[in-house]
Amino acid sequence: MNAPSSAAADRARLVRRGFALEFLTLGWNVAGVVILAVTAIAARSVALAGFGLDSLIEIGASTVVVWELSGTGELRRRRALRAMAVAFIALAVYLLIQSSWALVSGHRAAHSPGGIAWTAITAAVMAALAAGKARTGAALGNPVLSAEGRVTFVDAVLAAAVLTGLALNAAVGWWWADPLAGYVLVFYAAREARTLLTDQH
User: Fold this and answer.
1) Residue 164: which of 154, 152, 174, 155 has the closest Cα?
2) What is the largest CA-CA distance in the chain?
3) 121-173: per-residue pLDDT in tens?
4) pLDDT (tens digit per residue) in 50-71
5) What is the rounded radius of gyration, in angstroms, for the C-alpha atoms of the chain?
6) What is the pTM assigned to this prediction?
7) CB-based contacts of 115, cutoff 8 Å, min separation 6
8) So what's the architecture of 2-199 in CATH?
9) Which SUPFAM superfamilies does this chain map to (predicted)?
10) Helices (H) then strands (E): counts for the chain
């Protein structure tokens, strides 16, 4: 009797941790949307505006996981995984359009100390949250939480890419660094979407 009870307690603890990770992600990204809107307008930065859109996608992805963790059943899990795939596709499309537009137009944003500070902190926070989701998702055997952890990891890498672009623009005027980094993430996001959709067949 003790073993099943202990297993149930461990699972309940992991589920609570999953909820906590998602609510932390939601709170951070809601604040981020506001901060990024202000800094993007001030600097006329396409990269910061685009990163704000990425934060909206991450909010949607976290909401999907909260919904999935609140229920059970294979149908709900399959729907959640499809929603995660759609989030990756949306992220890839956004990055492709934004990066191409920035390169073709030769858009040069103003310097943004606030944007540099926020993306630096966000890169570290999202990387930590992604690691926590990966561990918790694996322990629970929950592919939805694990998949959303990869969305959070993309968010961390994108924050680092935007940070690099902003820093290089401020330091040496390399305005094209950020859109080039975006193309790398297009491939990553598209690959994750394909993996999620393939695993369901």
Assistant:
1) 174
2) 67
3) 999 999 999 999 999 999 999 988 998 898 899 889 889 988 888 888 888 88
4) 788 888 888 888 888 888 888 7
5) 18
6) 0.81
7) 36, 39, 40, 43, 45, 47, 48, 162, 166
8) Up-down Bundle (1.20)
9) Cation efflux protein transmembrane domain-like (SSF161111)
10) 6, 0
